[in-house]
Design a protein that fits this description.
Layout (H helix, E strand, L loop, with lengths): L5 H13 L3 H11 L5 H8 L3 H13 L3 E6 L2 E6 L3 H12 L44
Antiparallel strand pairs: 1-2
Length: about 140
């Protein structure tokens, strides 16, 4: 018989439930590489902005992410970096290597956030996709 309390078991299962969606795993792993805004995640993962925003809202509500505003962008970061250890352990259990946990796309070419803007690029020359300018979480 386990000595773990019912409340403790519920807390653990709540976190596992929040990270059980493949898109959320992608989002968390990408944010784990460095804070990211919605447009950066969109460019990195290839998901639509609304889809990403929906998952970010759930992850924030669960207390797994924090956000900070920089101009018109909200940059998300992991509240607890140990979450990456949990994802790495889950990957190891399934036989996935650490190198397979990297973001599939390079966002720098299509993302208009300050993180991806290179020196000498013209921010006025970038035309964001509809909905990117008004991302609110």
């Amino acid at each position: 018989m386990s000595t773990i309390s019912s409340l403790t078991a519920k807390k653990i299962s709540r976190i596992l439930r929040q990270i059980s969606h493949p898109a959320r795993v992608h989002i968390l792993l990408t944010i784990g590489e460095g804070e990211a805004c919605v447009c950066h995640l969109e460019a990195s993962l290839g998901y639509r902005q609304a889809y990403i925003s929906q998952h970010l809202m759930a992850l924030r509500k669960a207390g797994l992410l924090a956000g900070r505003r920089e101009g018109r962008f909200i940059f998300y970061r992991l509240k607890n970096p140990q979450l990456l250890d949990l994802l790495a352990q889950a990957a190891a259990l399934t036989g996935v290597s650490q190198t397979d946990l990297k973001s599939p796309l390079s966002p720098e070419e299509t993302c208009c956030c300050p993180r991806c803007m290179t020196e000498g690029s013209d921010p006025e020359g970038i035309i964001p996709l509809p909905g990117r300018m008004n991302d609110k979480v």
